[in-house]
């Protein structure tokens, strides 16, 4: 069982999923920049990439969005985690998205200037623009409606085969030709009438989108997904949710109206925080949230994991730390890796880390131990609603996995490149900078018209020149008979320097 806590200010809104008093998920949305996932646009193709069977589409956001043109094999992308992320069942050919039905015929080649109806499946991040799909999906309370994709699936979290069959049969009779649906976990044990109401609402929404398309000039926004508050209610207010607690009257009224309309059986679970302390502080969330950006996460047994983000992937290293030297080394390593596997699964979910993740566990000799650590990692990931693919642990103790992340990760959203290193994570060493300055001085001093030289640099660089390079400076002045003046500049970047002839 878990509880949702919603903290709202004039600038942003935060939703925390708290389970057993521990923060498991933290989602943030800026009020002026809600993200694009789930939005439907009438776009215009501005560039075609034939070799990739893809195109760049202008949707009116100031940068091109990437569209995999014939995305029949990418249906998982067409069902975005617009709901704080639930994945459809991919476990069988009948219900999963691994197999593309033969009715999904290849599309004609894209043409520059062509107008297309597209949906954003992944927000822009880093240097990459948003990801688009031609296969629109409209998430509802109990199902995801696929108006142009004739497949029928059931959430993998519904394990009872009889219930799965009931939901498939009930939905199949409601779908129009050419349309499909994915039954969500919230559909479990819900009556057919509720499924029909949900589907009727989404069908009407799709009809509204289609009616606006002909009169809209591309690029144009045709449909905007719900904000974080209502998405949280739509996707999480189920049997496992104790309730949603908000901290403003406005959110309480909006949420109660939404719940009364779409899930009246849950309206008693919406409450408002009346305490004097901020809602996150009162429930101990701020203490947990403050560590979301920490590079090092300490394990209870004394080991640690180190999380590093790069352009291509996220690397996670496991260290023994304070557990080294305690008892049998192999058992110590195994227990540390076991703790790390469980914590890594939690951190991936909490930080919303996506893309490629490489985990470097401490090397274990026993194959059984490697299998147990792998199993612990997979068990921890199983409770995560985001889809993941994981490979077996290699002999070197490396585990590779991918985790779907349609929305911006916490690290990217809460950080900005360092003004010093510009995101590299390092700066040039002071001594290396001093060596560059000495070489430049030698070249400039050889010019006959120059009478003296002035070096301007950060105070640390000037001090290093005086302390460590005084011999080179003295030799240079003696050889060319030209004085060198060193000037400290507090306003200079550590890597910035200037040699000015006089």
Strand content: 25-35%
**Proportion of helical residues:** 25-40%
Number of structurally distinct domains: 4
Secondary structural class: alpha+beta
Instruction: Report the total helices.
Output: 13
| Strand order within the widest beta sheet | 16-17-18-19-21-20
- Coarse morphology: globular
Largest sheet: 6 strands, mixed
In angstroms, what separates the terminal alpha carbons?
74 Å
Low-confidence stretches: 72-103
What radius of gyration results from the CA coordinates? Answer: 29 Å
Estimate the mean pLDDT confidence: 86
Number of strands: 24
What's the arrangement of secondary structure elements?
Layout (H helix, E strand, L loop, with lengths): L1 E7 L3 E8 L2 E9 L9 E10 L4 E5 L6 E4 L6 H4 L36 E8 L8 E3 L4 E2 L3 E4 L5 E3 L6 H12 L7 E4 L8 H21 L7 E4 L4 H9 L4 E6 L2 H14 L7 E3 L6 H4 L2 H5 L6 E3 L5 E6 L3 E7 L9 H23 L3 E6 L6 H16 L5 E3 L7 E6 L6 H5 L15 H16 L7 E5 L1 H10 L1 H11 L3 E5 L8 E5 L1
Parallel strand pairs: 1-14, 6-8, 11-12, 14-15, 18-19, 22-23
Antiparallel strand pairs: 1-2, 2-3, 4-5, 4-7, 4-13, 5-6, 7-8, 9-10, 10-12, 16-17, 17-18, 19-21, 20-21, 22-24
Helix pairs in contact: 4-5, 8-9, 11-12, 11-13
